[in-house]
Amino acid sequence: MDKYTKIIEQIKALEADMVDFKIVDFYGRLRHVTIPTTNITDKKLQFGFGFDGSNFGFAETGKSDFVARPVIKDFVELDPCLEDPTATFMCDVYEAAQDVKPYESDPRGILRKACNYMQSLGVADMATWGPELEFYLFNDLLVRTDPQAMSAEIISDEGYWGSQDDDYSFATRLPKKGGYHSVPPNDTQYQTRVEAVRRLTSLGYDVKYHHHEVGGPGQCEVEFNLMDSMVAADCIILGKYIIRNTAQEFGSYASFLPKPIFGEAGNGLHVHFLMKGKNGELVFHDPNGYMGLSKMALSFLAGILTHAPAITAITNPSTNSYKRLVRGYEAPCNCCYGMANRNAAVRIPAYATQPEEKRFEYRVGDATFNPYLALASILMAGLDGVKKSLDPEGKFGPLEKMDKGWEPPVSIPASLKEALEALQKDHQFLLDGGVFTKGMLEKFISDKMQDHLRIERTPHPVEFEMYELI
Q1: Residues of CATH 3.10.20.70 domain(s) within the chain?
Q2: What are the catalytic residues?
Q3: What is the reported pTM?
Q4: CATH 3.30.590.10, the chain: domain bounds
Q5: Sign of the Cα pseudo-torsion (54, 66, 117, 431, in order)
Q6: Which of 10-14, 255-259, 333-337 has the lowest mean pLDDT?
Q7: What are phi and psi of 256, to 5 degrees?
């Protein structure tokens, strides 16, 4: 019995009458197609199914036939968010041609190529990531974007501004920026997080912990332990999917928007990063290095900071991203590093004292990114630093050793337009090893510049307050 027949037998044994195939589009949005189990064959699992890639941002309508091929594991997973037992598979994207081949701009394929490139350089055998998902759980979010009316209203039992129906201050209300590690009854969304974490762990994702975050009106965080690159990117995609669905079941709305509330803490998506060599060799550790980090780890760090303005276009690809990246909210605004410093783009955790724990945290990104592209861009920037033996000391920090008032030579871009312009100027390192392609980056920059233009040209309600009386 081949592996495809075994998978079909497992699907039937689980009494799943539907099979769900999940595809991540060019921009990081999760899509799906569902096929009845009665129509699942060995060939369907082996060769996949066709779909219109123009609606996924992959191509124009004139050449938009693509194939989604499920990633087959040794076991079948059930979608924890669907009421009826439904088998679920992530898919890779292939070009539909005479000779079907992996699509060069498939986000999952780009991350896979980046990992293969890392191995080809002999730098490490494995890159591991520990994502931190930050999000708000609101009672509801009401949005209107008509030409004659523009508004966004957040309804939150924890909100200090009062509810939709009254102006009283209930016991569950939290002060502005006063939510960190709150307990019930103030932590009104505890059970929602618990159920989301149960579902995540049912899929094998290793949750480190979850808690209420700084933001008073329902900000939360779910943090994961280190995992392999592709598993981490899948975890981010499915983590958002599970949290959103679980929130809806509990009567809430989950928002991963980087800055949903002015004056409150924003939502980042920090990633802890550690590399391992053959047989688990700790290539990031050197007992004599800064904070126990090896020269290779520091060169990797220097590569990330050198290319940070450019990769910010990929790790922070929304106009809203840059409303979070402002001073005063534990947001990283400068291309620098330091021990236990949450204002730096790269933080070296002070509590990671053991050799196997030596790592750093990249704090710039947010959940509007495509995780496959974001992790690949960070990895490629770091590898460029290793290849060039870059040294971060003095130029980028460490902050605790620099004079008061010191500023790094470059800053994190202040807008999406600025980030896209940086990527346009500095992207050769992403093309190394054929990981990204020039055409893919040109399309990305062009599409995202349209996001910038839409916001720039759309009247904002605050503008009426600022200028109407002049």
Answers
A1: 3-103
A2: 52, 132, 134, 213, 221, 270, 342, 361, 363
A3: 0.95
A4: 119-467
A5: negative
A6: 333-337
A7: -100, 10
